[in-house]
Write a structure and sequence with these properties.
There is one protein chain. The protein is α/β, with parallel strands linked by helices and about 280 residues long. The chain has a single domain, classed as Alpha/Beta hydrolase fold, catalytic domain (Rossmann fold), CATH 3.40.50.1820. Helices cover about 35% and strands about 25% of the residues. It contains nine helices and nine strands. The protein has a nine-stranded mixed sheet, with helices on both faces. The chain is globular. The structure holds glutathione. Glutathione binds next to α1. It is an enzyme of class 3 (hydrolase). It comes from Litoreibacter ascidiaceicola.
Length: about 280
């Protein structure tokens, strides 16, 4: 692992690190915020999964998360959204290929050799950060934005018992029935739609639900509402009688101005679960 940068931030440290990833077969970069409390021992962790076109950097500089995380003594992990490199498959569209890994393990060529983002996040990066930094493996929560909200919800529901809480900002809620999903799942996973269900938050909600609290915020002026389908997840959660706070925020769009506005609520929500 190589340290790219470390900057003092809200009494803690905002670092950027790169490492060779076996699952993605390329170098990967991630951001990690450690609060001051990490000097004295392991701290709880909030994973933040980013959306389409993002690197590790977007949320790190635009989500206004570090100050609230410092107040709660929580670390933040900002992974990248895909493998990257000139010799790695890509697509001209912004919503497929590099910057758009959709948090799945691709089985189809040309994506399969590198696009293994589910394993990268849930196994490889997990092992690395808990090995190298003072993080408490027993206290983890997860959040994300848009494609990253889809990643947070699906990973939380599949990795049973790992996360105390999950939240999402404008998540893609029903990708198997959306143009933000069907095209990408066909490319990464193939035409067998049964394989897609394990990566659809609404279908996972109907099947498993989540054993813990969920918080979801989406803006009423989100320009991608028809692709996100929050109503499908809301219906599935109601049918499951899932513990959930589901909010449509009047006037807000899809941008980081929206994400940063509600970041305090999300970090406070996760802190309650992590310190329960
Ligand atoms: N505006 C983008 C659409 C993609 C988009 O809005 N991406 C969101 C996540 S789905 C994002 O976080 N963009 C990066 C940023 O705002 O910093 C485009 O058309 O290329």
């Amino acid at each position: 692992m190589e340290t790219i940068s470390e900057n003092a931030c809200f009494g803690g440290v905002q670092g950027v690190y790169s490492h060779r990833s076996e699952s993605c077969d390329c170098d990967m970069t991630f951001g990690l915020f450690l609060p001051a409390e990490a000097k004295d021992g392991p701290v709880p962790v909030l994973w933040y999964l980013s959306g389409l076109t993002c690197t590790h950097e977007n949320a790190m500089v635009k989500a206004a998360a570090q100050g609230w995380a410092a107040e709660q003594g929580i670390a933040l992990i900002f992974p990248d959204t895909s493998p990257r490199g000139d010799d790695i498959a890509n697509d001209e569209a912004f919503d497929l290929g590099q910057g758009a890994g959709f948090y799945v393990n691709a089985t189809q060529n040309p994506w399969a050799p590198h696009f293994q983002m589910y394993d990268y996040i849930t196994k490889e990066l997990t092992d690395l950060v808990f090995d190298k930094f003072p993080l408490d493996v027993t206290r983890q929560a997860i959040t994300g934005h848009s494609m990253g909200g889809h990643g947070a919800l699906t990973i939380a529901m599949r990795e049973t018992g790992r996360f105390a809480s999950v939240s999402a900002f404008s998540p893609i809620c029903n990708p198997t029935d959306s143009d933000w999903g069907r095209r990408q799942f066909t490319a990464y996973l193939g035409f067998e739609e049964d394989e897609w269900a394990e990566h659809d938050a609404s279908l996972l909600m109907a099947k498993h639900g989540f054993d813990g609290p969920i918080l979801i915020d989406t803006g009423t002026k989100d320009q991608f509402l028809d692709l996100l389908k929050p109503e499908t997840l809301a219906q599935a959660a109601a049918a499951k009688r899932q513990e959930i706070i589901f909010r449509m925020q009047p006037g807000y769009d899809h941008s980081y101005f929206f994400v940063s506005t509600f970041m305090e609520d999300h970090i406070t929500f996760h802190a309650e679960a992590l310190y329960a």
